[in-house]
Amino acid sequence: xxxxxxxxxxxxxxxxxxxxxxxxxxxxxxxxxxxxxxxxxxxxxxxxxxxxxxxxxxxxxxxxxxxxxxxxxxxxxxxxxxxxxxxxxxxxxxxxxxxxxxxxxxxxxxxxxxxxxxxxxxxxxxxxxxxxxxxxxxxxxxxxxxxxxxxxxxxxxxxxxxxxxxxxxxxxxxxxxxxxxxxxxxxxxxxxxxxxxxxxxxxxxx
Length: 206
Known about the structure:
By secondary structure, the chain is mainly β. The protein has a single domain, classed as Elongation Factor Tu (Ef-tu), domain 3. The chain has three helices and twelve strands. A hairpin with a 4-residue loop joins strand 10 and strand 11. The chain starts with a strand and ends with a strand.
């Protein structure tokens, strides 16, 4: 059995537990994942399934990928990612994997996505610097001050400076599955998950 699935973030809402407590949840739509390729330890060095979601029009797919999908006998899809599986997993190209066959309510999962891009950000927003003085003639408020030693006449690698923020891969280590809606292919996990609404997520068992 596959150890994960692909999904898309719909947004956040809240539900009520049986005890009457409010639980903030993120809604993830996990349409049936189609198996496009099977990786084996004998041929590839590891066991995994290449899964795909969100069908695409054939004329929007280039020739190499058209052949790749054709060899598997599946329709072209937009997103392709790999998830690990057991060596004795019977899944083969063309099979569909549904959410209820991989996850169960109360389970802890890892969720990987791409964080929201913030563009160019200063040191205060990007690294949490407290900033300079606001009074007594200070002319440096939000700008970084010293950027390193003067003797080497260069800035050492790894110095925290203003720059591009966000738009990076991030994995949430433990998220609890609160509810599974089998009819609508929805997975509800407690709390926020990385990425913007509509972004691709990889959900795997912790």
